[in-house]
Amino acid sequence: MEPQQGGEQLAWGPTGAGAACLCPAAVASSAAGNVFPRQVLEQEMLRRAEQQLQLQVGGGGGGDRRRERKMKNRESAARSRLRRMAYVSELEKEVSLLRAEKEELAKLCQELKEAAADEAPASAPGKRAAAAPRRLQRTASAPF
């Protein structure tokens, strides 16, 4: 039962050579052949659903595994990107905190230097300004 019009064919059932053409011309030609367009669409949808079930159940086992592996790989890659973005944002926060702490410490260091410079000449006007620091010397601890 293959109606023809203008070189187009509809294939019925699972033995058909290719996918059925559901264009308006083919539907109209099938309607002319005493088959209603709605019935044609329903039959074609049932045939395609059966083919998909066959592929899912037993026909395409390798393809399903490959498809599942691809999906898992995509999900894993997405999780990895999210982890990397979170890690980078944490590092950026830490950098900004450390820079702020560095600025505070630099200001404190500068204030201490200024305070030490202001205090040193006023406290010892008659003494040497730069006294040599005491050096540690090694002594003999053994009696020989």
TrEMBL record:
UniProt GO BP: abscisic acid-activated signaling pathway; positive regulation of DNA-templated transcription
- What are the residue boundaries of the BZIP domain, all occurrences included? 63-114
UniProt region (Disordered), positions on chain:
52-80, 115-144
> Where do Low complexity bias regions lie?
118-134
GO cellular component annotations, sorted alphabetically?
nucleus
Position of the signal peptide: none
- Subcellular location(s) per record: Nucleus
* Keyword set, alphabetical order: Abscisic acid signaling pathway, DNA-binding, Nucleus, Transcription, Transcription regulation
Q: Name one Pfam family in it.
A: bZIP_1
Identify the InterPro entries for this entry.
bZIP (IPR004827), BZIP46-like (IPR043452), bZIP_sf (IPR046347)
Which Gene Ontology molecular-function terms are recorded?
A: DNA binding; DNA-binding transcription factor activity
The keyword DNA-binding is annotated on this UniProt entry: yes
Keyword Transcription tagged: yes
Protein known as: BZIP domain-containing protein
Q: Which organism is it from?
A: Panicum virgatum
Taxonomy of origin reads: Eukaryota, Viridiplantae, Streptophyta, Embryophyta, Tracheophyta
